[in-house]
Amino acid sequence: MAEVSIDDVAxxxxxxxxxxxxxxxxxxxxxxxxxxxxxxxxxELGYSMNPLAQALRRGSSNLVPLIVPDMTxxxxxxxxxxxxxAAEARGYQLMLCITNGDTGQTADYVSAMHSMYSPxxxxxxxxxxxxxxxxxxxxxxxVVVIDRVEDDPAVPTVTVDSARxxxxxxxxxxxxxxxxxxxxxxxxGTYTAQDRWDAYHHAAERHGIPPxxxxxxxxxxxxxxIVDHWMREPNRPTAVIASNxxxxxxxxxxxxxxxxxxxxxxxxxxxxxxDLGAQFSPRLTSVRQPITDLGRIAIELGEALIAGGPPDHLxxxxxxxxxxxxxxxxx
Amino acid sequence: MAEVSIDDVAxxxxxxxxxxxxxxxxxxxxxxxxxxxxxxxxxELGYSMNPLAQALRRGSSNLVPLIVPDMTxxxxxxxxxxxxxAAEARGYQLMLCITNGDTGQTADYVSAMHSMYSPxxxxxxxxxxxxxxxxxxxxxxxVVVIDRVEDDPAVPTVTVDSARxxxxxxxxxxxxxxxxxxxxxxxxGTYTAQDRWDAYHHAAERHGIPPxxxxxxxxxxxxxxIVDHWMREPNRPTAVIASNxxxxxxxxxxxxxxxxxxxxxxxxxxxxxxDLGAQFSPRLTSVRQPITDLGRIAIELGEALIAGGPPDHLxxxxxxxxxxxxxxxxx
DNA sequence: ACGATTGCTGAGATCGATTGCAATCGAAGA
DNA sequence: TCTTCGATTGCAATCGATCTCAGCAATCGT
Lengths: 331, 331
Known about the structure:
The structure is a homodimer. Chain A has helices at 6-13, 17-25, 32-45, 51-58, 74-89, 103-115, 129-138, 162-175, 191-206, 222-232, 245-257, 291-306; strands at 63-68, 93-98, 121-123, 143-146, 157-160, 181-184, 212-213, 239-242, 267-272, 285-288, 313-316, 319-321. By secondary structure, the first copy, chain A, is an alpha/beta fold. Chain A has three domains: 6-49, 434 Repressor (Amino-terminal Domain), CATH 1.10.260; 63-160 and 291-318, Rossmann fold, CATH 3.40.50.2300; 162-289, Response regulator (Rossmann fold, 3-Layer(aba) Sandwich). Chain A has a six-stranded parallel beta sheet with strand order 2-1-3-4-5-11, sandwiched between helices. The first copy, chain A, has a six-stranded mixed beta sheet with strand order 7-6-8-9-10-12, sandwiched between helices. In chain A, helix 7 links the parallel strand 3 (121-123) and strand 4 (143-146). In chain A, helix 5 packs across helix 12, helix 8 packs across helix 9 (191-206) and helix 10 (222-232) crosses helix 11 (245-257). At the A-B interface, helix 4, helix 5, strand 2, helix 6 and helix 11 of A face helix 4, helix 5, strand 2, helix 6 and helix 11 of B. The first copy, chain A, binds a DNA duplex through residues 3, 5-7, 15-22, 25, 29-31, 34, 49-59, 115.
């Protein structure tokens, strides 16, 4: 019941603490017989090493913080899950930190991670603002970013190719006969959001389609704003690309509330490819981000970082997840 | 850049480390002038206390683990958010642990929390199984449970009144003219799931309604199984109560895939009252759990626990969130 | 004016582990 | 048989903080 320390085990096993320590952390440095004896005694006493003390002495721990802005967005939830799995598989203990988009909190977490002797940390930023705070620490801590950091090649990053994703969406919609394709941005401020926005304009231009951006008032529920905007369009688009799945959900929901149906009245394609989209009504067609790879690679980049390798900047390929929220245009 | 320790600050300020320590942790015990001087020097050096060392020496930290089975379920995501907020407001640092329903992991986390000197931990269990592992630790650690623990009154708990929630759903549906109300269970094994199941049967019996439970094969995607079951019913129910919002989503989605619409062909009511339900199509009517209170109260129970008070067992009241997935029965 | 009290600060042990260095021991090599 | 070497193990310093105890000054009561 009381905490059993390394000295208790040492005493019970009749050896010195250092032997116990070695039996656990460097098994080769101790005679096999001794080691087994120590381990057995330790097991009997229900001993397990205190990670805090260990981290303090060693100057390194296995706690890897994953800093995300908002767990309510299922994208981050899925990211957290896969990253946690990847982390655990490599012996790290993932610790999830939610910032609620608060710049100060992100800085706090990164600095806390510093004093926790984390080998490295992973940040999935929401707004560009908080990256500034991050950079102050990036040089002294080891940080991996999902998304990107402003012009700072020293920070390893992993991203999904937004332009390619938007192209995929365009090709799909074009193939379905749509020629009037709008874009519904959601949150703004991140690099990814900006990329998707830009990619939409480029793609529209390339295909000779007049770009229509369905903006909603910031802060408010985005659905109504976007749909209002859409209905006001003189030449009403027949398809819309949402900047992420949540926005797509909101649009479809609002459309339904007004008696319109998807995809009959409007084809909607999301961006994320969440599992949750398969439970939506209609099942959401979406550009799928390889979230599992994102998590795994973030961990790998972290390991590369502590190994002293050069910072990588990986770009992953999205793919298309065709479900039921898009359909062929029928005039 | 290098880690600045308490001794560095002490030297720079020309005082002993104990004075620096006191300046931070018990401001009254040090002269105002000295304290300010120390604090200023510390700020200049960019010093911040090392929580590990502090926890090690003090034998207590402010790290509160929140152990959840699955972040992919938005219920837990919302719970995590509100609990994190409540924790932070009280000076705790919430650390999220995802078990993926793995019994062993839950035990690991609880034991890790032990050696992290956490004041207490919060567990939101998914299956009843892992509660056994929990109990082995509960007596030596301080654990608060959201949901309940088998016959163990020593563990404080906070729950939502499932029976009341089901009643609310029944009353709503009955008021809409429905007389044939089915139940769609989801995950099983938790106390809450069992409660809702029982409550459904009681309510059905009380209202003279033949109970219809729409079970799906475990493991698989629940939507198709539930809908299949529903269609096979000789006397097809006109309304269904889902055991949680995710199940409701799945049912509605599957219905949509088969060309049926909600609420025209079937009224569906969920259980959770997630914000996400408002983005669903149709907007989901649901029994709302007071998730914010759940998180806050879990923290408060934890504090009561370390204060040495008797373990409480709180039961919160759900409420009805009427949106668009239910409608009056039209014969 | 003198012993007692109060307020503030310094010394040093301590939390639970790791690790470089020294000591020990048996066996191989000369 | 004596030296040397490698494999083990013990010793003690150390990581960065907290906390009890003691010392010392200024203040208080009478």
